[in-house]
UniProtKB/TrEMBL annotation:
Keyword Magnesium: no
Protein name: SH3b domain-containing protein
Gene3D superfamilies in the record: SH3 Domains
Organism: Solemya elarraichensis gill symbiont
Coiled-coil annotated residue ranges, if any: 127-199
Length: 238
């Protein structure tokens, strides 16, 4: 019996201690409180419970007035009631104190109407289509990335070729300079050769002229010497 009484007292104490937390997690709305409005989003989901696992009861447009029933500050959900009397849960951050001042353009309104009229099968079909498009975009992005890498490699090759061309041009300029120097040296050597040949020819010309002159002299002198000897010998005989 004492054990049962102890358990009851313990449970009562636990309930008293947890009461503030329960009040903090879910605060009842005051009677006559100002309504809240759907934030400036295209559509928000009103679900049957607090969490995405619960069924979507309605899709509320931006600016829709809602009556606040309770607020769960811990999980971030607010229990609301629509003007038509439908009760459900929405995310607290998707509510605002004042209604929106802007009006959706016609295209947005038409898009909202289309979204509201879509069935679950149509939504799944659209999701599959979007997934397929996303996959194609990824493939195109990968192809573009591969093409970019290929062009980068080709550009690096072009830079290398240009660098080689610059080096070849420098080497060609250096070779031309060397050829010019060698041509000048060859011209100098040819001039030296011509000068040597001219001086050599002049030397032989002088030698030839000297030999010719000596021959002429001997041609004049030797006969006279022979004639003089003959006369001397003739006068002696007489």
């Amino acid at each position: 019996m004492k054990r049962i009484i102890t358990l009851c007292l313990t449970a009562f104490v636990v309930l008293i201690l947890n009461a503030p937390f329960a009040l903090a997690q879910e605060t009842e709305a005051e009677t006559g409180a100002e309504p809240r409005y759907v934030s400036n989003s295209l559509l928000i989901n009103m679900r049957a419970g607090e969490g995405t696992k619960y069924k979507i009861l309605a899709r509320l447009r931006s600016g829709t007035p809602l009556e606040i029933i309770s607020v769960n500050q811990k999980d971030g959900y607010t229990k609301v009631k629509t003007e038509s009397g439908k009760v459900g849960y929405v995310l607290s951050r998707q509510l605002m104190d004042e209604p929106r001042t802007c009006v959706n353009p016609p295209l947005t309104e038409a898009t909202l109407a289309q979204l509201e009229n879509l069935s679950n099968n149509q939504i799944r079909s659209r999701f599959v289509q979007l997934t397929t498009d996303y996959t194609k975009l990824q493939e195109r992005y990968q192809a573009a990335t591969d093409e970019k890498n290929k062009l980068t490699q080709e550009l690096a090759g072009i830079h290398q070729t240009a660098s080689n061309a610059i080096n070849i041009a420098k080497e060609r300029t250096e070779l031309r300079k060397q050829v010019t120097d060698l041509t000048r040296q060859l011209a100098d050597l040819q001039q030296v050769k011509r000068d040597y040949e001219n001086s050599h020819n002049q030397r032989w010309f002088i030698i030839g002229a000297a030999v010719l002159l000596l021959g002429i002299l001997f041609g004049f002198i030797l006969p006279r010497l022979s004639f003089g000897r003959r006369q001397d010998s003739g006068w002696g005989e007489l």
